[in-house]
Amino acid sequence: MLKKLQKGFTLIELMIVVAIIGILAAIAIPNFIKFQARSKQSEAKANTKAIFTAQKAFFQEKDRFSSLTGEVGFEPERNNRYAYYLGNGGSLEDRATSTIVNAATFTGINVDIFKYGVGTQGATMVTSPCTCTGGAAGCNVPGIDPPPSPAFNAGAVGNIDADSTVDVWTISSGSRVFTVTASCTADANNPSGEPANDQNDVNL
Is 36's pLDDT higher than 80? Predict the structure, then answer.
């Protein structure tokens, strides 16, 4: 009786399979990285909206807005990848250790570098690449306009993909109109209370 020969894969067939896997990986991996980065942006969206809500609630009681995180009651959960700014050039809550020291003078919250090790931001928010009109003075610069025309801007900055570009978000009590350019990724019309992605780290 003749034995049946077992047929295996030829070298060419194996090379074709490896090439196909390589092509699929080249397409899928960058898309996965972008998807992962976009999921991290949800933190900035949620927390800038929380700033807006806290400011509005504070205004109902005090008839003014505040650039102090403790005064308006903005204290996001730890593990934050973004730094948050209610004012510009003040001092940020330090999250470099396991214990947070609260102070009445904080105008923002720094990145939780106790968790991530890197990513700390300066007390002055990085300059947005956008120009716009509306909102408080400066339009996309964190700060407060006092009565009789009270308004506020707030912002968030974080590095979500470990490159040199940062992700920049702003929000305002007033509606704003942005001049959209290659470096400014915000939508042209930005309603009051809607976070604007001034500089999208996912695409830049």
Answer: no
